[in-house]
């Protein structure tokens, strides 16, 4: 009611979410591209890479209806139940999914579980019911109203009247609140979930839709679905408090480009009206976000209806829907800008406080009374308007009367609804009370039952205590028996073990005796055969040894004879070697001597010849040089003479110059001829000298070959002198050659003659020096050769003497060895004969002794008589002694005697007790009987059986 006090929360921004629907068939067929990217991390949307946001939430085309509801709306339902007013509205371009988001995909759905495309409105109502039930709230009332705003006219979608004559609804400002009152709207009570689906279907049928180019079922109006929740609480003082919350779910008509949507006629008018109201909404949003002084709520009915949701005390969420397609770029951009702006709107949510029933009734009656008064006054006022001028005022007053009447109707209607709600909640309370009574009766009955059961339980506990006591006594007795049995059984076990060991030993001894007897018999047999074998083997050995020793002696005699002959041979050989060596050494000495002498002679001859050759060579060169000098001199004289004649002629007879020239030419020719002749002589002489030198060279080579053949050692020593001789001869040859060359050259030029002469002189000089050096080297080498020879002769003499000495020593040793061979051979022969005799004697003795031994062993083996005593004879029979039996042990007390009489037990309790009794009995029996009869069970087996659950034992016994 108007006078309800409210508690406020902190300021909060409008919660704006953006939802992008999937591409539709038209967009896909037109091959439009996706220009929208949803960033769920940053809660922003990129449109053609331009970012918008951040928003409260962003949902891509894959997001389900359920996800959006759970994420965005569910929390608001809690607030509604807590007493807040909440609004969720969808805004966006036509065909982008506002109706799909708010209402869902199907109109015939029966519940959200039946259809996953179910929208926010049905889910919200379902959720309200669920949350009310879960919160344990028993007294509540839900009313829904559903209106549409079409062409700036408000119509009730739940009114019973037909489509055509639907009554327009009026809106009044609520003087006490920031909102409006919709006069005459149906507020249909909803008692369960399915009611909502029916109402939605009814509303959807009435809502104005039409096919446009953008949407086959385009909503041509804005729709507002309102849920009013009234909750009653009863205080301890018996006061009734009422709490109210309201949920507005708004599906706006889509903003549209009339050109693109193809709207014409009525459709174009609708679109214009839709765009107009959306424009006003935009202006309101802008004013709210720019802190403008005036907010134009009153400019459209839409903004009047949403006044409290925009900048008021309502908790508001806006879902901006958009297409991903490039074809809707501009509309999408405008939607996102709109959403960005709306996100800045600040609301101050206020919680409606709980008001008592009395207060509400008083408020209603006060308001109705006031309205009646006002109405009366207005009607009375109408009665006094008589003049024409006051007609306008009359008109105004009439309107006021009508408004007051409607307000009064509203207030009365409100009171009626309140009374209805209360009646409904009273009914709920009555039902609750009845249920409570019923529950209390049941509780009392249960308590009575419980008292009886407690008594029975106490009795049973007593019995159980006695049972437990009895079981304890039996258990002690059984334990005692068990301990006794264990002791007896341990003793018996020990004895049994001893007896078994004894019998085992007796058996083992018998077996061992059998085996020993067999072994001794076998041994005697083996010994006998062994002795016989030994005897025969020793006889054979004796015979074989005799044969072998005789053959050995024979072989030794042969060997001795061979050694004798070898010794004699050594003797002969040593003598022969001695004489041969002597002769050889003598020959070698002589040879050495002869070689030395011969070498000396050859060397001497060689030197002599070499000297002669060199001397003749020197002489020859000297003579040649002299003759060359003379020739040169003659040549020069004659040239001087010619020169003189030529100069005389030139001076005396110039006209005869030609003749003189000819004469001179002739003279020159002659001189050249004579020079040629001289040259030929010189050449001949030179070639003769060369031949002589070559012959000498041949002799020298022969000599050197001989020297090489005679003595190899001398060759090494002479090698150096031979090489020097060869080099000297080479240089002589070179000189001869150069002399020949020079002689030829001299024919042409006097200067060359001069040069040749001086060269020749130089060569002569060199030659002499070389010859002299060669001579000196030859003398040196000869001395060296002689020295080597004498050293060699001395060494060979010494060697020879040493060799003779060693030969003598060797031959002496050979003779001694030969003698030793002979004597050793004789000793071997003698020893062999002796050994042979001894071996024969030993073997004879051994054979005799072996025979005696074997006879003795055979006798001894024959004398062995084995005695066999059976250990199993004369021993007590194999019987296990008898041990203490269960009858000798003190029997455990019977459980019946311990438990006493059970006459007072009846019915099923008797069965129960009998069962327990049986279990105890079986337990005792099992412990006493099983343990005593199976005396040879191992302690671990018995322990295991004791530890088995009684029920299992029971089963075994019963089986
Ligand atoms: N998220 C979605 N997933 C699947 N289909 C969708 C989705 N959103 C919208 N649609 C489909 O797109 C079509 C248009 O959606 P809807 O009628 O809800 O748009 P609108 O915004 O209410 O349009 P108008 O403003 O013209 O009434 C429908 O067929 C609907 O089923």
TrEMBL record:
Q: Where in the cell is it found?
A: Cytoplasm, Cytoskeleton
Q: Which residues bind ATP?
A: 92-99
- Coiled coil (UniProt feature): 354-381, 422-470
Pfam families, per the entry: Kinesin (PF00225)
Q: Enumerate the SMART domains for this protein.
A: KISc (SM00129)
Annotated Gene Ontology cellular component terms? mitotic spindle; nucleus; spindle microtubule
Q: What is this protein called?
A: Kinesin-like protein
Q: Which organism is it from?
A: Caenorhabditis brenneri
